[in-house]
Design brief:
The protein has 211 residues and is α/β, with parallel strands linked by helices. It is built from 6 helices and 8 strands. The protein has an 8-stranded mixed sheet with strand order 1-2-4-3-5-6-7-8, with helices on both faces. The N and C termini lie far apart (46 Å).
């Protein structure tokens, strides 16, 4: 684990995978009140590691400080950008796939263009905010709709926050379960082929000269 200073306090980054030469880097953010050990994040990590990627799971500063209530969106985005910049220095010229679950997926979508993500993994992306007192709910769909790079949206079939629909650049996988996406294995199985499609394939090893 490494600590990265951000404008809103230190973030913690749990880094797995090869120290040198990864095909790409998958950067993942957590849900609003959760952490980086969520089953769907671990499933995505497993698929990425098997594909030769490095994986960085980012714990936002408010969670590092022990708070469960999420920071304002602007602060989340600024902290995320600071971590992404740090990782870009640590892994120069390595393509980055950004993603996360729920709130973390929203952050990844908002920053995808400006931070140079080559693709976005949206786990349990919440199309709708929690109900207000009057029963109305804010629409968060524009955040994922604004992403122009390839997107994989993975949701539970009973997700009370809604399920994104497919588009020309967005693939959608619906799994058994709800917003918690506790099915780690099926998440890994959904993410693996998508990574293979959206990332450049590794160059073949040189043929061994025959004697």
């Amino acid at each position: 684990m490494i600590t990265v200073e951000t404008p809103h306090g230190p973030a913690q980054v749990h880094l797995d995978g090869p120290d040198a030469g990864p095909r790409a880097l998958l950067v993942l953010g957590h849900g609003a009140g959760g952490g980086v050990e969520a089953p769907d994040l671990l499933g995505a990590r497993s698929a990425a590691l098997d594909a030769g990627l490095a994986v960085a799971r980012v714990l936002q500063p408010y969670r590092v400080a022990g708070r469960k209530a999420p920071a304002p969106a602007a602060q989340l985005d600024e902290a995320w950008a600071a971590v992404v910049a740090h990782l870009g220095t640590a892994f120069p010229e390595v393509p980055q796939v950004h993603g996360g679950r729920s709130s973390g997926a929203r952050v990844a979508c908002r920053g995808a263009t400006t931070l140079g993500a080559v693709a976005v993994l949206a786990l349990a992306f919440p199309l709708l905010a929690p109900p207000r007192r009057d029963g109305s709910r804010a629409d968060r769909g524009p955040e994922i709709d604004a992403v122009t790079v390839p997107v994989l949206a993975v949701s539970g079939e009973r997700d009370r926050f809604g399920i994104p629909g497919p588009t020309a650049t967005r693939e959608v996988v619906v799994l058994a379960g709800d917003h918690s996406l506790k099915a780690r294995g099926p998440v890994a199985a959904a993410v693996a082929p998508w990574l293979a499609r959206v990332l450049p394939q590794p160059a073949p090893a040189p043929a061994t000269a025959r004697r």
